[in-house]
Each structure stands twice: as structure tokens, then as C-alpha cells.
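for the record, two folds in this file. i put them one after another cuz i was lazy. first one right below, seq on top, C-alpha cells after. the second one comes after a little note so u can tell where it starts
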Amino acid sequence: MSSFASMILTKHTRIVLLFFSVNMYALAQEEQNDEATWKLYPNDSTEVINETSILDTTNIGTLTISSGPAFVEIVQDYRVKQLLEKDKYLNEKNDPLQIDGYRIKIYFGSGANSQKEANQAKARFLEKFSKTKIYVKWTTPNYTTSVGNFRTKMDAEKFLKEMSVDFPEGFIVPSKIDLPELR
């Protein structure tokens, strides 16, 4: 192994160890009153990373090492991994500005003219119901036009009945809706 490669690996290892040391220190400070539940070396704390992935994360590029895989042992409390997984789950699942509710879909289509048709459905709807929120969304390969922010299905059904004369193709879909405006 060249001295340059060992210097890079050493620098990378120091950065990784520093990162986890800071995290462990923060957790230790948080848990200082409850040392009985502290587990320093859980059984599932060792992860193996090969040298190419270490080098790829440092963006070295053409540097190659032929001495075999390298092992990095990450020693951390098992609760760090649980907290990271919980944070990831909550961030993916919950948008703090939206809640569960219902919308009425008035257009759904794909193809060459689908964007134009979705916007035409929006324009037709706004002519009749200008105070209701309307959303045109593109999810590969479909365009959809949905209306309303209904907290209950009953509210959505009531509005669907009102608009069914002009939009008989409308149907109710569960959706994440915007928070109601405060008055």
C-alpha cells in the first residue's frame, strides 16, 4: 500500500472515529442520570466496509489498493441506530404541513396531451368553483387534477354531489391535505 493511500485511509478513519465519538459523548451526556441502561458494546455493532467504498466516499477516483478488504468496527450504543431509523421513518412518513384527509380527483391521464388536458380540467373547474383549492400533479407517467382539502369523507362526498353535474367523472381519494386555514 502506498504511503498516500495509507495517509488517506488514516485521515478517513480519524474522521469516522471523531464523528462517532462526538455522537457517543452527546448520548452519554443525555443519559448521565440513567447509567444502568447504558450498553457500550452491543452484539450487532460491528459493520464491515471494504476499501473501495471508503475510497469512493472520499472521492479519490483513480487510486487503487490491492491489499484486500479493510474492516472498520463501529462501537456505539444500539439506541443510536434506533434513533436514526425512527428519525428517518418520521421524516419520510410525516410532512408537518399536511394531514390525512380526502381530495376529489377530476382528471387522471397519461400520454402526449395529458398535461394540457389536466390544465384544461383545472380551468373548467375554476370557472364553476373558484374558491376551492385545485392541484395538478405529475407522477411519472401520469398527470392528475385533484380538488379540495376535506378532513372527512362525508365532507368530500357532499362536495362531490354538488359538482357531479359538471364533473361526473370525479371520485374521492384518500390523500395528504393541507392544514386548514385559521380564521
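(here's the note) second protein begins now
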Amino acid sequence: MKKFFWHKAVLAASLSILTGCSQSISDYQQLTPELALDQFFLGSGRAYGVMHNWRGQQSVRFVADLCGEWQQGQGDLYEVFYFSDGRVEQRHWQLSQSAEGEITGTAGDVVGEATGQLAGNSLYWQYVLRLPYDGDTLDVTVKDWLHLVDEKNLINRTTLHKFGFKVAELTLSIQQLDAKADCSALKQQVAEIAAN
């Protein structure tokens, strides 16, 4: 009887730990400073990231230059990534932010539309990313959590999934450098990389 009790207690504790691991964007509703994409991703920024494979091993690092332009809730975010393996890649997000904090976005390597929700200092959004893989492409589901630390610094934790299994994890920090910066040079660089 004692053995049965302990097995039941361990099972209950395990279930409470597992269910306690899930999070909802509404959990962050009261946290400040409030994240607004049209304020944080405005002007120039810089990101530093590390990708880990499914085993948790560091696979690649990168630095990225960012620049955003916004008008009435519609934004263009330009990104150029410099990877530790020598690759240089670009992404041009076309973003929309509603008054209720709903976020949608499209990009050249995103299948369909990215969708998400802002609450407090955080954004959760999800999309399908098409990656080059072994001479072909691979579509993975991206689950993205962004948390604003202060007005100029944000932490981004991303998991990539295939067939429901986590295949990689990305951690990056993003810093807004100059909200009044002109994006022309980075916009041109993104266009040149995309054309190659």
C-alpha cells in the first residue's frame, strides 16, 4: 500500500510539472515595459544569436543587422545575417500590428503567414519557415517567444519543429541602436543578397 501511494505521488508530481511547463501569452499581460513592434523594431538594430541542434549542441552562431520602417501599424523589417560558417542571408518581413496587439507577417522564406499576439512585454508568434536543406528545402514550424527586457533590449527564444518534434532551438538578443536611423543602405543590401 505504501509503495502504491509513492507511485501515485510521483505520478501526480510529474503531471503537475509537465502541465506547469506550458505558457500562454496572457501570462505576461501585466509585465512592463510594454512591447510594441512599431517602436522596438523602428530604425536600426543589432542581433546576436546561437543555434542549438536537437541534441542541445551549439551548431552555428550569427550576428544580424536590422532596420525597420513603420507607418500606421504597417512595417517593413530588413535583416542581414552573418553566420559563423561564412553564410550571409537576408530576410524582409512585411509586418502588421493591430490596435489589439495582433501581429501578422510575411517574408520570402516564410510559407503562408506568420501570426501572433502581443501582451505586456512579450510576443508569441508562429510560422512555417522554408530552409535550404541538402540541395532541396525543408519546411519547419517556428515557435517564437520575444520578451522585452528594457526599452532597448529584447531576448528572443525560438524552437523549430518538424512532425511535432523539436529539431533545433535558437536564442538571440536584439538591441535597438537608433530609432531614427535611415534604412536605405540595409534595404539595398537585402535586395542585392536576394537577387543572388
